[in-house]
Specification:
about 375 residues, 6-stranded mixed β-sheet, alpha+beta, 9 helices, about 30% strand
Length: about 375
């Protein structure tokens, strides 16, 4: 086991104007499960491939433990990778697939069999060791790929979207198994995904990337409750945070017929050029249904209601939103808000519902920089 450290690690592909990964500084603790997350093209898989030695670093350094591995070949970095594609040999049994890397390394047959059986017991694959991959389900094949990495006993596990080929139910089941397995083994793990739900449920910490630049590194709880900027706020959370630019009207933020009282720290941060607009973020679960007479109740024109059994999601637009130059909604460039309510009490499509956010759970960001303000 070992720490992993990126020091100003940069990669610029030939012919590209902008770096795929730009001056990445990140330290991953010994035994930590760190998730790299972000939209497609943000540099997360490239960062993983740089760590694996599959991409040459343009500038900066990468360390595994105290060892600078920036120019070390992949086979000498003592890492094991698990990919989206299982990459199993179809003509080999499960046992042979799991032990193949050790066989190539010249490990004796008795040691190979012992390590394979140990890994199979951990992964609940013992009864499948003599089967071929075609006789396994997708989840079982992914566990075989995990087993192939485990038997090598590397210092670092690298996982590049290993659950993407699984169906939704199996993905949920397998992600809990991977998280539990990593904690039992205690091996430093870097896990890449575009799925922020996976990031929130699996990682000890999350690192969010955008356009090759690290936006925030924090625990799942901190990332959810205190996003560093508007991008992280909109990316982390499902359904996405309701986010958009509101006008400053005296001591309030205004959008359509909605009004929110601005806390004193936020007002203090809104000076000079920053005094006209503010980005407001409110998660769907932060709202309560209220009466029309409630102070600062927000009128919401309901367009759709989604029933999910334990919850209902109300979708709609703030009354008067059509008069605004900006959008406010859940998701990128969306004008539709999402509000989570009790399944027993919910408005109907076409009605005007009145909602009020809990002031403690409203997030504010600079309209100029997108950075968090008011703390």
């Amino acid at each position: 086991m070992a720490t992993v450290t990126f020091k100003n690690a940069t990669l610029i592909y030939p012919g590209a104007e902008n770096p795929a990964v730009n001056a990445l500084n990140l330290e991953i603790k010994d035994g930590e499960f760190l998730v790299l997350v972000g939209p497609s093209g943000c540099g997360k898989s490239t960062s993983l491939r740089m760590l694996a030695g599959l991409e040459d670093v343009t500038s900066g350094n990468i360390y595994i433990g105290e060892r600078d591995v920036t120019n070390v070949s992949p086979k000498d970095r003592d890492i094991a990778m698990v990919f989206q594609n299982y990459a199993l040999y179809p003509h080999m049994t499960v046992a042979d697939n799991m032990g193949f890397a050790l066989k190539i390394a010249g490990v004796d047959k008795e040691t190979i069999r012992k390590r394979v059986e140990e890994a199979a017991a951990v992964l609940d694959l013992t009864e499948y060791l003599d089967r071929k991959p075609r006789a396994l389900s997708g989840g079982q094949r992914q566990r075989v790929a995990m087993g192939r990495a485990i038997v090598r006993k590397p210092q670092v596990f690298l996982m590049d979207e290993p659950l993407s080929n699984l169906d939704a139910k199996l993905r949920v089941q397998t992600r809990t198994q991977i998280a539990a397995l990593q904690r039992n083994l205690g091996v430093t793990t870097v896990y890449v995904t575009h799925d922020q739900t996976e990031a929130l449920t699996m990682g000890d910490r999350i690192a969010v990337l955008k356009d090759g630049i690290l936006q925030q590194v924090a625990s799942p709880d901190e990332m959810f409750s205190r996003p560093a900027n508007a991008f992280v706020a909109g990316f982390i959370g499902s359904p996405a945070m309701n986010l958009g630019t509101w006008r400053i009207d005296g001591m309030q933020a205004a959008f359509g017929e909605a009004r929110i009282n601005l806390p004193a720290p936020v007002r203090s941060a809104l000076t000079g050029e920053n005094a006209t607009e503010v980005i407001v973020g409110i998660r769907p679960e932060a709202f309560n249904l209220v009466s029309a007479e409630t102070e600062n109740a927000i009128p919401l024109h309901v367009t759709f209601v989604e029933h999910l059994g334990s919850d209902s999601y109300v979708y709609g637009t703030i009354v008067g939103a059509e008069n605004e130059t900006h959008l406010f909604g859940s998701g990128d460039k969306s004008k539709t808000m999402t509000v989570r309510v009790s399944p027993e009490v919910h408005p109907a499509p076409g009605e005007t519902a009145y909602i009020c956010p809990d002031a403690a759970y409203i997030h504010y960001f600079s309209a100029q920089s997108g950075e968090r303000i008011g703390d």
